[in-house]
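Per-record layout

source: Levilactobacillus angrenensis
name: AAA family ATPase
length: 350
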Amino acid sequence: MKKQEVLNLIRYYAEDNDAGFRDTAYGIADEFDKTGDSQLAEYIMATLSNTNTFVPQAESDSFQFVQRVQLENDATLPLPDSIKDDLLGVVNAIRHNMGINRFLFEGAPGTGKTESVKQVARILKRDLFQVSIDELIDSHLGETAKNISQLFKEINQLPQPSRVIILFDELDSLAMDRTNSHDVREMGRATTAFLKGLDSLNPQVALIGTTNLIQSFDRALLRRFNSIINFNRYTQQDLLEISELILEKTLTRFPNTGRNVRLVRKIMALMPKLPYPGDLKNLIETSVAFSDPEKKFDYIPRLYRAVTHMDPKDLSRLEKQGFTIREIELLSGVSRSTVSRELRGDSPVE
């Protein structure tokens, strides 16, 4: 047992911090169990479960404003290296347990903010709880602020806070600029309550908010976050590579479908500005899902139509767009011999 853990136990006891005391004690019991002293570990666990020193913590399922999120194993979106590096920094900061525990992911819809929060939880093997913001907002005067105060009480009472991540998805409605002349006074109170809640947050709980409207945030609220991660940092090359990864992953569920990554890349490159990964995923998956299972490459012309909003029957246009005769065959459904003949301007054989 480390000296710091003893000091933490004393401090949490003096502060009447049940969550901190229990989490530290459980951690000590876990250390004893790992070093072979299972009897002492069991004694600590039994003492904690029977002690009357503290009020027992509520089960998370009984809370009104937070809900546990079930994490799927393969739901992540590919990310560029710059964002991956920042997420690794978030993971490291949480692991170091230095009180650097409040993060804001900002960016356009479909950039992977929410999925990245889930990935952070997977890496850290923490339980993820999402705040039900709709439940917080109340039309009655002062109720929203009261709900926010109750929310943070719930968060601070969650069992084993060092194993928890709290997600505020689409935080915008609680983050309005209180100095804005168009602000609704009630929501200004809500923002103030949220600021107080952040200040009272158990330092062992990691909190991550997401937004695509950071420009409307209260400045004081932005300062409460230890780090703000920008998810808009995708280059055209990043998105092309991500589209290939999404396609490969999608096609694994369709074993009889043909693969032509080079052709798909050329189709995607026809877009002046590729959409962000969320929209890319939907566009590619829909093209494959709608395809005829009896035709190996039926998703190819469907993808072309979705990208260009044109039908791939104009052989001359396809040639000008840089497609080979074989690729034009796959796009148009016209045989290579006919494609070659029509592009040369030969008269059809009688």
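summary: The chain is about 50% helix and 10% strand. The chain has three domains: 3-50, 60-230, 236-344.
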